[in-house]
Amino acid sequence: MAENPSPAPPPPLTEVESHGVDRIPDAERTATPFDLFRLAFGGANTFSTCVLGAFPVLFGLSFWQGLAATLVGVVAGALILCPMAVFGPVNGTNNAVSSSAHLGVHGRVVGSFLSLLTAVAFFSISVWSSGDALVGGAHRMFGLPRTTLSFAVAYAVFAGLVLVLVLVVCVYGFRFMLFINKVAVVSATLLFLLGAAAFAGDFDPSYAGAFTSSADPATQALFWPSFIGAALIVLSNPVSFGAFLGDWSRYIPADTPLRRVVGAAFLSQLATLLPFLFGLATASIIAAKAPEYVDPAAPDFVGGLLAVSPGWFFLPVCLLALIGGMSTGTTSLYGTGLDFSSVFPRLSRVQATLFVGLLSIAFIFAGRFGLNLVQSISTFATMIITCTTPWMVVMMLGFFVRRGWYDPEALQVFNRRRRGGRYWFTHGWNWRGMTAWWVSAVIGVLFTHVPGQFVGPLGELAGGVDIGLPLSLATAAVLYLALLALFPEPRAAYGPGGARLVRTVDTPVPPITGPRGAEPASLTTVEP
């Protein structure tokens, strides 16, 4: 293979991004693994992650139990997530497009749909937590009434500001988003460290939670369901980046050692222990000093945080909410709007981003004023990771059996409204990967058990313990490899090195046809 041309200098921040989900040319890949670290960490180093960090206490765990659940969730989530970073440098496109090789040219819409749900959920968490912090801070500093109207206005104004910023990012693209996150990472980290100083005197790690030795048997029986449920809520944060990593890593040169890319993704999630532990520690303070704010019937972490904060920390809380909300909004909506416009070509990139943003706002208003918001978000987050992780397993195993080889032109068939190619399989669908994904996702949902929120039809079979995610992971791995072994894929779907672990069949591949004309006949076979 010819050597990649040397990358050009990074473009200025105000240069309009010309690329959609098409392959980024080698000469324009100017990002580094450290840039990926900053984007992934910056998108999670936010006030909304603090809210997720409070869930172990809201579920009744002690500080030390909550710390264990948080560590399990972050480390497990980081291990599941980090391999998803390799597709961007290898293929120069996002992960949904890369999934064409495993789910088929049309099956790639599964990744687009999952990224849409994830963006809606986590942008909603950002708007909710940031809006509540702004209203609570204004209430404490200026006496603003905490009414339905004030919250509605705060959500609408904050979401509107974030959408404006995201639309600007849509125009100027990746480099501009990277600049925003550079500022956000430093600013939010300093504010969290300032918060640690603000609450150091009140923090007591001996907070016991609900599952003490004196608790009644019915309460003690809920410990493991609550522990696992809290760990899954934490795990949802790193897993939520699975569909987005390719949006950022595609700007990393293809010859970058993949271990550095994987390592950057892994470390970015370990770094999120900062906001997670801030949320956990402050939630334990709230539970001890203002327990009415962690009432399971109507929990209010943000209100409780402001209630126990020293007066001088109100402004930093508001700044943290604002900065973090901007960072989460740009990272979650940038890639989703980009991909959504490729699925629905009648929508421009700006229109697609605006649609996703408005859908998120509708979700936050429905959850905040029509439903139990904490239950809505935690259940939604659990459902997302239960459905997303088997998709990620299919992607990672597919990468392994293909030895990391992909055909960039065949991956872009759907985006160019064409037909055929190596990944056409059965009318554009690879039923092997699709079957492994949906069967595993359904099994995961059936066995899900989130105490007091969502219990699947088979959720009680494990004694109240949520085994949905482990089952979906194991089912996806076993079923996908079994289907590849029993129903071999065409030899042409693999590279010159052939398949790893599985066998293939010599099946003709239809030529790529469409607006650009038919592909050369040599594409129908691959040299051994």
Sequence-ordered SSE layout with sheet pairings:
Blueprint: H1 33-42, H2 47-53, H3 55-58, H4 63-81, H5 87-91, H6 95-98, H7 100-103, H8 109-142, H9 148-172, H10 174-199, H11 217-220, H12 223-239, H13 245-249, H14 258-270, H15 273-289, H16 301-308, H17 314-343, H18 349-370, H19 373-401, H20 408-411, H21 431-446, E1 449-450, E2 454-455, H22 468-486, E3 489-490, E4 504-505
Parallel strand pairs: 3-4
Antiparallel strand pairs: 1-2
Give a description of the structure.
The protein is mainly alpha-helical and 528 residues long. Helices cover 61% and strands 2% of the residues. It contains 22 helices and four strands. It has helices spanning 33-42, 47-53, 55-58, 63-81, 87-91, 95-98, 100-103, 109-142, 148-172, 174-199, 217-220, 223-239, 245-249, 258-270, 273-289, 301-308, 314-343, 349-370, 373-401, 408-411, 431-446, 468-486; strands at residues 449-450, 454-455, 489-490, 504-505. The strands form two sheets. Strands 1-2 form a two-stranded antiparallel sheet. The chain has a two-stranded parallel ribbon with strand order 3-4. The longest helix has 34 residues, at 109-142. Residues 517-528 have low confidence and may be disordered.
Main traits of this protein?
528 residues; two-stranded parallel sheet; two-stranded antiparallel ribbon
Write a compact overview of the structure shown.
The protein is mostly helical.
Shape: globular
- Radius of gyration over C-alpha positions, nearest whole angstrom: 23 Å
| Residue share in helix | 55-70%
Low-confidence region ranges: 517-528
- The overall average pLDDT, rounded, is 84
Subcellular location: Membrane
Membrane topology: Multi-pass membrane protein
Pfam family, one: Transp_cyt_pur
Family: Belongs to the purine-cytosine permease (2.A.39) family.
